[in-house]
Each structure stands twice: as structure tokens, then as C-alpha cells.
Amino acid sequence: MTPIANATAVCTCSGGWWAVEVPEIPGLFIQARRLDQVEEQVRDAAEMLDTQIGTVTIDPQDA
User: What local confidence, expressed as pLDDT, does residue 62 receive?
Assistant: First the structure.
């Protein structure tokens, strides 16, 4: 498993959902209904990509 100390979840709201990209992990994109769901979903998706994240920073963007 590849460790990453810090990852940023860049979140853009569209149509009532948050589209989330993690630039530090190529190919990691998720959607979440609420921002408080993002960290757990990012960690789950990273694990599926054989990556472990230390700190997740949530970065909501203006659409």
C-alpha cells in the first residue's frame, strides 16, 4: 500500500452533489451528497487504489 501523508479533496458543488477530485492520487474522483461525507469516501476510494492517506483536507470551491 502506498502511503500519502496529506491529500486535498477539491470539492465542486453541481446539481446538489459534490464532485470531488484528489490531485495527489491520479484517477481518484468521487461524488458526495454532503461535505461531511467526503473524507470517509475519499479514504475508501484511496484504499481501493491501494493508497493510504494520513490527513485529508477538504477544499470546497465556488462553482
Answer: 82
Q: Rounded to whole angstroms, what are the CA distances from 7 to 15, 16, 21, 45?
A: 25, 24, 10, 13
- Here the CATH number for the domain that contains residue 14 is 3.30.2390.10
Domains in the chain, number: 1
| Phi, psi dihedral angles at 33 (to 5 degrees) | -75, -40
pTM score over 0.90 = yes
Cβ atoms within 10 Å, residue 48: 8
60 DSSP β-pair partners: 11
pLDDT tens for 1-30 read 899 999 999 999 999 999 999 999 999 999
